[in-house]
Design a protein that fits this description.
By secondary structure, the protein is an all-alpha fold. The chain is 66% helix and 0% strand. 36% of the residues are buried.
């Protein structure tokens, strides 16, 4: 099994009208966040199906998929990595974690980050020092900053909110809307499990948070409470 076979399998689902929609949705035009990314119109469920079929692909072949300019090929690589990570023992997980970091520049769109970072970076760091997340949070690279905050989703699921709150604080003045959305999303997830902790964070920072971050964070609040927080936003 090699990357060429995986690419051919993916190519069977090629859909030009869908690709055109995705090119627009993922902001691939000059000056936009994903300028130059190429889509062939394969859906995520279709890609997941192929990931299951090609999960025995070795890392050197996954690397070839990750290096591809085609978005769905990079996504396929990451979904295969997720499966490999979940089936691996300790040594295998270390190898996959390091492989992910080595090729982190290829994780370069928000869906690629969101579908892989919690399951690999977050999962690996669950019982380890998380210094790497703070280094990523201070990166000049948009996607690496998003990886930092979205990786904490794995911790949130285990009712561990410390790093989410700390990294959201670091990113509170970030200029990128995609970071505002990710931070707000993670804060909302914290609130689903412990509303008091989320509200304590909001009471301290809501007046200086980007509006998008705040809106995402309070999306599930009752209308009266949402209006209260939005009114106090500077």
């Amino acid at each position: 099994m090699d990357s060429l076979q995986a690419k051919r399998s993916l190519g069977k689902y090629r859909n030009k009208p869908k690709a055109k929609v995705l090119q627009s949705f993922f902001k691939t035009a000059p000056g936009e966040y994903a300028h130059g990314d190429v889509f062939i119109g394969v859906t995520v469920p279709q890609t997941r199906k192929l990931a299951n079929q090609h999960q025995e692909l070795p890392l050197n072949e996954i690397k070839k998929l990750l290096k591809s300019p085609i978005h769905e090929e990079r996504l396929l690589a990451l979904l295969i990595l997720n499966l490999k990570y979940s089936r691996s023992e300790s040594k295998g997980r270390i190898k996959i974690f390091n492989f992910y970091l080595k090729h982190i520049k290829q994780v370069n769109n928000w869906d690629l980050v969101d579908l892989s970072a919690p399951k690999i970076i977050g999962a690996y760091l669950e019982a380890k020092k998380r210094t790497i997340l703070y280094r990523l949070a201070k990166s000049k690279n948009l996607w690496q900053r998003r990886i930092a905050i979205v990786s904490t989703f794995n911790f949130i699921r285990n009712n561990d909110f410390r790093d989410t709150l700390k990294i959201a604080t670091i990113l509170i003045k970030d200029k990128e809307d995609l970071i505002h959305k990710a931070c707000g999303w993670m804060l909302r997830e914290v609130g689903k499990r412990n509303l008091a902790i989320e509200e304590r964070f909001l009471k301290k920072y809501s007046s200086i948070m980007p509006r998008t971050m705040l809106r995402y964070a309070i999306e599930r609040f009752p209308e009266k409470k949402r209006k209260h927080y939005l009114k106090n936003l500077l």
